[in-house]
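Purpose: get a first structural picture of the assembly so the mutagenesis plan has something to point at.
Setup: two entries, given in the order below. No constraints added.
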Amino acid sequence: QMQLVESGGGVVQPGGSVRLSCTASGFSIFNYGMHWVRQAPGKGLEWVAVISYNRRSEYYGDSVKGRFTISRENSEGTVYLQMNSLRAEDTAVYYCARDRDTYCSGGSCRGMDVWGQGTTVTVS
Amino acid sequence: QSVLTQSPSVSGAPGQRVTISCAGSSSNIGAHYDVHWYQQLPGTAPKLLIYGNNNRPSGVPDRFAGSKSGSSASLAITGLQAEDEAGYYCQSYDSSLSAYVFGTGTKVTVL
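Result (structure tokens, whole complex):
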């Protein structure tokens, strides 16, 4: 059974940092682009970042650019999201998701077909 | 504020057909980037419903159908069922932002 499990969420002070992890089981992340998506309480989905299978391409949403960094360790089956300079508006459930595309560069992503259950980050 | 605009809510009786629209622009849907649709049941993670404008992943009933025309896309649900009550989001790529974007989301209510 293909599964993604996020961890690392919690309560953090404004200006602080936290690193989220997303670990895959039932498949290898090596062949897939990987995303982070967040959802603030009572709000819609907001795309955060994506990384290509080989780490050569990374893209970020405007609201997190320069503060968040996505990375991956294929051998460990894990994707990370380093979140710095956190603000109250970063409070959300953070989901990681697998893309159907390998590269996910320049608009080539083909839909997020496996999602984790989410981890909550509260900035307060 | 998202560059993909959806109506906040739609409703229908069981068995009816409802349509959810996703309005974009020349830098996203109108630029021929693919549109994907997700269903989010209350309290759960999103689920891929339609990929590549009109393709259903394995296991998604054929009651769900996606289409795209110009700078807009639509998701149609036919034979509406109580279990379809959920939030629905379109998603595409925007070349002006160099970023992937979600629509504002539509809540479907089954009367």
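The two ends of chain B are 29 Å apart (CA to CA).
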